[in-house]
Design goal:
The chain has 344 residues and is of the alpha/beta class. It folds into two domains: 5-253, Carbamate kinase (3-Layer(aba) Sandwich), CATH 3.40.1160; 263-343, Roll (Archaeosine Trna-guanine Transglycosylase, Chain: A, domain 4). It contains 13 helices and 15 strands. A hairpin with a 7-residue loop joins strand 12 (301-305) and strand 13. The two termini are 29 Å apart.
């Protein structure tokens, strides 16, 4: 029986010093803890820090896209070598995996990526993933490494996703740690601020949005501070950070890929009746569509919105938005079949 999968994401602020230099002592601490978990899990590390590591080599660095790409090109090999040195005492080889959005939006490429990771795991190797900033197309970039980690966790069916951040977890209005999240309602989402670290791209709201996706597909998520002593071990054991409990799901591997990897090019809003039908595993009919938010073609992945502020699901469109617009209230016209719909 294969070991479960654990994905650990660490952000720039958690892995580098103030001047962008990789924190070697912290990386060594991660390696020691991950070595302890290595016998129990197949592990993926999603590590930020390449841009922060490389930017000091770019004269008059101002954070422009081309400068970020150049900094990543310099920083990636430096950072990966630091990881290799840290894991060497434990005889654990590591591999670099530079990912692009296309590796997840295209199912064939996704399955190839998954098989590569399986081969690495079969040989006791830990892949360290990061976005391939040097060549990533601006329109198809990951929003941040929280997204990349979530797509790996959801697509591969991980048991647990550990999201490292610069705070101890989600804090409520009184600054106290929210220890457990069972349901991502609007009250929980409102606790998150839009603030982000000076070094990173994401914020707590981003982390909660991706935690919502991962837990809806059966992956437990822990948002925690990895700088805490034995933070990874404690997070996996459930004694530190904000523990986001997974939902039971019968979603197939293909539907999990669709939920996480399919790039939504269109968007629609449905009425309450259609929302209820979708929750009860029914197909989406044209009569239940209130509005076309973004146009799409037949076969595109579309985002489904209802009464919530967050999307309620994604689907593969059976018709184009143009055809839907012309036949909007037709009762038996199927916009998306139940087999191509994932409710989040």
């Amino acid at each position: 029986m294969e070991k479960p999968i654990l994905v650990f994401k660490v952000g720039t602020a958690s892995i580098t010093t103030a001047d962008g230099t990789p924190d070697v002592s912290l990386i060594a601490s991660f390696a020691r803890q991950i070595a302890q978990l290595h016998n129990e899990f197949r592990i993926v590390i999603v590590s930020s820090g390449a841009v922060g590591t490389g930017k000091k080599f770019i004269k008059n660095y101002a954070g422009k896209l081309v400068e970020r790409k150049a900094a990543a090109a310099i920083g990636n090999p430096i950072l990966i070598n630091k990881y290799a040195d840290a894991f060497a005492p434990f005889n654990i080889p590591i591999a670099q995996s530079l990912c692009e959005r296309l590796h997840f939006s295209n199912r064939t490429q996704f399955l190839q990526l998954k098989e590569t990771y399986n081969e690495l795991w079969r040989n006791g190797i830990i892949p360290i993933a990061n976005e391939n900033d040097v060549v990533s197309n601006y329109e198809l970039k990951f929003s941040d490494n929280d997204e990349l980690a979530t797509l790996i966790a959801v697509g591969f069916g991980a048991k647990i996703l550990l999201i490292g951040t610069s705070v101890e977890g989600l804090l409520d209005g009184d600054g106290k740690l929210v220890k457990k999240i069972l349901n991502f309602d609007e009250q929980i989402l409102e606790m998150a601020t839009h603030e982000k670290s000076a070094a990173g791209l994401g914020g707590m709201r981003s982390k909660l949005a991706f935690a919502r996706l991962a837990t809806s597909m059966g992956t437990k998520v822990v948002i925690f501070n990895p700088r805490e002593e034995d933070g990874l071990i404690k997070a996996e054991m459930g004694i530190t950070g904000t523990q986001c409990e997974p939902r039971n799901t019968s979603a197939s591997q293909r539907k999990k890929w669709l939920a996480g990897g399919g790039v939504a090019t269109g968007s629609i809003k449905v009425d309450k009746g259609a929302e209820g039908a979708l929750q009860n595993c029914k197909s989406l009919l044209a009569v239940g569509v209130e509005k076309i938010i973004l146009p799409f073609e037949k076969g595109d992945v579309i985002e489904i919105r209802g009464t919530s502020k967050l999307p309620i699901g994604v689907a593969i469109a059976k018709i184009s938005s143009k055809e839907l617009e012309n036949r909007l209230k037709e009762k038996n016209l199927e916009v998306a079949n139940v087999d191509g719909i994932v409710i989040l």
